[in-house]
């Protein structure tokens, strides 16, 4: 069996405790975990991770003068891989906090990514109680990433409850799930902010909510990437106390940390120090000071041990040769082979204590909840989140005031030749504003949500298709609510067409056009990962579609004219013009329909001739079908694009 949870510094840390934790771990079986053991040791042996080097920035010389394919050396040698982890070995036991330290870029996050099975290792082994790390361990390992990404409009309790509903098995009664959420709130001292929207809570509360989200499934191993970054020292100590208590309850805690205070540093059970992906130390925090002293680097009197450690390893590139030499000496001096041997021995011992149960492997379920549960919970969450984000009083006021302003500008237009051009102008303006609004909102909401989906999906919360269906179905009514308010006001104030038989189809087409714009925005947001690039692309695409939409230019050259066939503006404009002018237009001598009325009065220009003058083509049914197609194909394409991208962070 693994050692009893009782790390060397646990009692010392307990005296610092100012909080009382009531950890009541649920039985693993209840939570749908596949690990038979409640205590898990994670060991890793000779981990190496290599990544392809970043592509060289395009240079003027190579692209325009020297020509394609040329390089400065003139040879096309295969690029050498960049090694970001080199022979890293170690282990963390239940009841222990293993701290990963090292300067920025030393490989701490990469190591945590690998230990959580989210990053691919080039060679080496990671074992859970002696068994190779695999997908079935997903639910027993929780990974609290550095960034606290949530739906900001949800409250802390909502966030935890939705996570519980998505990650805890269907077989667990709702009451038990709610109780688990309450436990987590108490455990992490989140009572004060439980009903506050996440966007209004403090950094420390956000971090604890992030940890709470991962703790709901009662994981056996907790990995945390820089949990104290951005927190003041008191909040950092309080957070470390929480981790201490979690470790004392039998969990295995591995955390990366930059420069802990003396109190926090002393609270770690084990330390693994990295520099440039190499190990420079592994052992107890106290032992580290002895070790570095023995190499001629004692801690100066009155100096914080962890600050000293970082001072030894941080090098200003190209400036400090002495520091670079010192770092290299520390790397060369560490005996990675002995660390590897120890890790291997631990793994072998555990392998004998925890033989792998083959039937367990076969019965491993990828998801804890059914498709229907995922769909239901995700729809509820998307609705609640978008309701808070979109249904703000400010948004309603904006829509109503805009409708009012537009109504005043185009106030009470009469039926007749005089107002034909004004009416067509109003039709086009409506679409432009609201389609842009939905396109840009959809595309901007997506990149942040995309990171959240990757985070949640990597812990096995739900299927991507369930998320996508839930998002697109539940947000649609929200998306069209604001344009609805606007049209209700502007349409009647402007008197576009006084017949209800024209108003309702007009409203439906305009709202459908808004949804088509949203689809295009979703597609761009899912396809282009870089926000800045996506913004440029979205602007260019939407302007090109607007310009070819039929209002500004009727005769567009073929080489650019094809864009109009993808433009929701065109189909919506053509359909709405036909709906708005559902009767023959009376000539009034105003000259609004020159060539048709010829300045005469009383003659009614036939409506289909008016359509020709305004450039409206195709039947209403055809144009509406095209809008449907764009809405559906845009969403499907966004889904496919999202599937293609493996990791929202771009890490491998
Ligand atoms: N996918 C990747 N492609 C190229 N380089 C990468 C990739 N992932 C990480 N790196 C590089 O590997 C090194 C280690 O990165 P990592 O994020 O693990 O460091 P870190 O110690 O966590 O840094 P910090 O403390 O700043 O978060 C860095 O130089 C980083 O640029």
From TrEMBL:
Keyword Plastid annotated: no
Domain ABC transporter: 60-301
Residue spans crossing the bilayer: 389-413, 425-446, 506-529, 536-553, 620-642
Pfam families: ABC2_membrane (PF01061), ABC2_membrane_7 (PF19055), ABC_tran (PF00005)
Keyword Iron: no
Record-linked CDD domains: ABCG_EPDR (cd03213)
Highest taxon above the source species: Eukaryota
UniProt topology in membrane: Multi-pass membrane protein
Keywords per UniProt: ATP-binding, Membrane, Nucleotide-binding, Transmembrane, Transmembrane helix, Transport
UniProt-listed PANTHER family: ABC TRANSPORTER G FAMILY MEMBER 28 (PTHR48041), EARLY GENE AT 23, ISOFORM C (PTHR48041:SF63)
Protein name: ABC transporter domain-containing protein
Source organism (scientific name): Tetraparma gracilis
